[in-house]
Amino acid sequence: QVQLVESGGGLVQAGGSLRLSCVASGTIFSRATWGWYRQAPGKPRELVAAVTSGGSTNYADSVRGRFTISTDNAKNTVYLRMNSLKPEDTAVYYCKYRNWASTDYWGQGTQVTVAS
After folding, report:
1. C-beta neighbour count of 5 within 10 angstroms
2. Which of 14, 63, 73, 108 lies deepest, with the highest CB count within 10 Å?
């Protein structure tokens, strides 16, 4: 079992920055994929960014160049640095860990609100 706890969300003005953190505990494998997803009211959950254990990253077109995903394997933590935030980035952000067996674990989510 894996438990994920996100933090770092909050209210920020448009153009501002936030850094989300997701700390994993339990049985963590080095061969894994980490991802950040978000869900705005009335919309489906969407992928924001992902990173593999090999270091490959993938970003949604809407955030590429503004957001950066990174990991600290020693701390079992994944980060999402968000710059130049826009009101349309407002959502609940979720962390996901996928292990080598393609089992997914989700965090509880953290609210990000960007005021115009």
Report:
1. 14
2. 63
Percent share of the chain, pLDDT over 70: 100
Task: Check whether 79 has a pLDDT greater than 90.
Answer: yes
Whether residue 103 is predicted with pLDDT greater than 90 in this model: the reply is yes
Q: Render pLDDT for 19-38 as a digit per residue (tens, 0 to 9).
A: 999 999 998 887 889 999 99
Residue type, position 43, single letter: K
**Per-residue DSSP letters for 27-87?**
S--SS-EEEEEEE-TTS--EEEEEEETT--EEE-TTTBTTEEEEEEGGGTEEEEEE-S--G
- The residue type of 17 is S
Residue found by looking up tokens 């077109």 in the block: 61
Instruction: Spell 64-76 as b/e; 16+ CB within 10 A means b.
Output: eeebbbebeeeeb
Instruction: Provide the terminal-to-terminal Cα distance of the chain, rounded to the nearest Å.
Output: 40
One-letter amino acid identity for 7? S
